[in-house]
Structure formats: C-alpha cells, structure tokens
Amino acid sequence: MDSVTLVCTASLIAGGLYWFVCVFGSAERKGKHASQLSGGSIDREKVQDNYNQYWSFFKKPKQIEKTENVPAFVDTFYNLVTDIYEWGWGQSFHFSPAIDGKSNLESTKIHEQMAVDLIKVKPGQKILDAGCGVGGPMRAIAAHSGCNVVGITINEYQVSRAKAHNKKAGLDHLCDVVCGNFLEMPFEDNSFDGAYSIEATCHAPKLEDVYGEIFRVLKPGALYVSYEWVTTELYRGDDPEHVEVIQGIERGDALPGLRSYSDIPEVAKKVGFEVVKELDLAKPPSKPWWTRLKMGRVAYWRNHIVVMVLETIGVAPKGTIDVHQMLFKTADYLSRGGETGIFSPMHMILLKKPKQEES
Ligand SMILES: C[S@@+](CC[C@H](N)C(=O)[O-])C[C@H]1O[C@@H](n2cnc3c(N)ncnc32)[C@H](O)[C@@H]1O
C-alpha cells in the first residue's frame, strides 16, 4: 500500500470513528457525547469499584431498607448512570405515554407541562422540584409556567449538569438547583407556592418521610403533584414472574422497594395532605410508555459497541460497560412490567396542603 492510500485509509477510519462516537452515537439535544462518558463525581479509576459496591447492597437487602443508607446508595447509582442517561435517553430522566404524531421529546414535554398545570401556579411564584435530575422537567416547566423553580437532587454531579443546562437554555434566572436530601430539605417551612416530583420519590425508603418534608415546605393551600412508580392491582406477590420483574426494576434503578399504588394516598393523608385527584397515567386511553424502550434495542446495541470501544481504548472509565449492560437488562424488566400491566411509572397523585383554617 503506498503512502497516499495509507493516509487516506487512516483518515477514513479516524473520520468514521469520530462520526460514530461523536455524531451518530451522540444525542438529539441530549447534551453528552459518548466520548465524554464519566462516572459523575466518582474518580474514573473508582467507577468499577463503585459499580461492584452498588451491587453488593443487594446481597444485604436489609441494609438498603435502612433509611440512613439509602441516599448514599442512590447517590452512587446516579454517579454511575447520569452521563449514560443523558447520552442515551435525554435530559429528562422519566417516561411518558407515547402520543401519535409526536416525537419522544414532544411527548416528554407534554407530560412535564401537565404536572405544572395541575398545581395551578402563576408566573413569578416559587415551586419545588423534588428529585430534579439534570433538570429536563424543570426547564420545560419554568418556560411553560413562568414560575421560579427550585430543584433538589441528592447527586452533586447532577447539580453541575443541571446548572450548565439551565444557563445554556437561558433559563438560569428562573431555575435554581440545590444538592441535598429530600428527606430533610434545607428549605423554610411554608415557603413554596407549589411542588412536583417526577419519578423520584420512589427512591425514598419511607414515602411518609419525603411527603412529610414536602408538606412542611409548602404554603397552606398549595398543591403538590407526584408521578409515582408503583405496582398495580394486577401485581401478584405469589407469581414468580411478577416478583422477578419487580425485583429486576428495583435492582437496576436503585429502589429500596416498590410500593403498591394503594399505599400512596394512605401515606399522603397520614402526613396531612388532602387527596385532590389520583389517576394512573399509564392506563388506556394513554398509549404505551414502554414502546420507546423496546424501540431503543437497536440503539442499545449500537451504543454498547461504542461503550466497549471507548472503555477498551481508555476513553471511558473501567466499569462503564457493566453499567451500560445493567441498564439494558433493567430496560427489559421495565418493558415487561409495562406490557403485563403490573407496574406503572406514572401513577399520578395530586395533593393539597389544607389552608390553616381548614385543618
Ligand atoms: C429518575 S430521576 C428523575 C429526575 C427528574 N425528576 C426527571 O424526571 O428528569 C430521580 C431523581 O431523584 C433524585 N433523588 C433520589 N433520592 C433523593 C433524595 N433522597 N434526595 C434528593 N434527591 C433524590 C435523584 O438524585 C434523581 O435526580
């Protein structure tokens, strides 16, 4: 091979690799390139250890049930998955029903805007996003409502990602993000005009702890809406297949234990809320939320090749392949949970903190 052919071939390979990793393998407005995958706030040489440690929690299930261990366990999980979520899924870390004629991004936004419409807040008012991720919902909600949104997440790395996205979107004057535990929030009593949480309170070991905190920081008369991950009325604890699916979801999503849909209003009432409305948004006439996961199988294999190459050549930290594989297995459990109807990630509950004179 002469030198001209060699240079041309090498350039083609390098160009193709760049395109595969940075263009094809990157995001429709996701904010992360494959070449930037990291372990969040974890040093790159400790990613594999942290992944192993994450799994070791499940060898001692009693340990994760202890309230004090759960936030650290959830924090580790989000260090491991945040970049992969952003790269492979987007800036909103939740599901939404498919809508005919709408893209995934549009359906996601509609699902988020519905949350703020339900809590009936006005422009300029202050609302809380409990468990805000990297702030996809927060930005859609701030832009739609004109409210000031304060998000809280347990994960420091997500705070930096959310702040960078807020600035880039020109929404940092409306959106603020705090690193903290929603089981003991650093906010004053009666200080928010409304609150929402999207697929986040499922990480609380005891729902009453996070609902109690949200109740405390809301002004009397204010509304709170949550999209809860639950097992539905179709779930049977004596069916081994149901148990396998639900355990698979818990293990691959850092959940201390999924709750039954029927427990949610009971806990809400116990901490003092009035239940205004409750609806499983996954049920017909909604279109399935899990089709996006099933259609993502091809993208998964493409991404998995990218991850294997990047970890092998030392661009992505060791452990990234394992984390990516864990998420793929979990996607399968989630799809099975959706298809069988035993699991919903969007059991909506709208709650009101009573006005003082009513309580
Ligand atoms: C599935 S993500 C959803 C994020 C966001 N709501 C969205 O839809 O994009 C769950 C979020 O809950 C947060 N979270 C879990 N446990 C928490 C805790 N104890 N305190 C604060 N945030 C927590 C995680 O850090 C993560 O940001």
TrEMBL record:
PROSITE patterns in the cross-refs: SAM_MT_ERG6_SMT
GO molecular function ontology, one term from the record: 24-methylenesterol C-methyltransferase activity
InterPro entries listed in its UniProt record: Methyltransf_11, MeTrfase_SMT, SAM-dependent_MTases_sf, Sterol_MeTrfase_C
Bilayer-crossing regions: 6-27
Pathway: Steroid biosynthesis; sterol biosynthesis
EC number(s) per entry: 2.1.1.-
Family: Belongs to the class I-like SAM-binding methyltransferase superfamily. Erg6/SMT family.
Record-annotated SAM-dependent methyltransferase Erg6/SMT-type domain positions: 77-354
Origin species: Artemisia annua
Catalyzed reactions per annotation: 24-methylidenelophenol + S-adenosyl-L-methionine = (Z)-24-ethylidenelophenol + S-adenosyl-L-homocysteine + H(+)
Enzyme class (EC, first level): transferase
Function of the protein: Catalyzes the methyl transfer from S-adenosyl-methionine to the methylene group of 24-methylene lophenol to form 24-ethylidene lophenol.
GO terms of biological process kind: alkaloid metabolic process; methylation; sterol biosynthetic process
Keyword list, A-Z: Lipid biosynthesis, Lipid metabolism, Membrane, Methyltransferase, S-adenosyl-L-methionine, Steroid biosynthesis, Steroid metabolism, Sterol biosynthesis, Sterol metabolism, Transferase, Transmembrane, Transmembrane helix
Name assigned to this protein: Methyltransferase
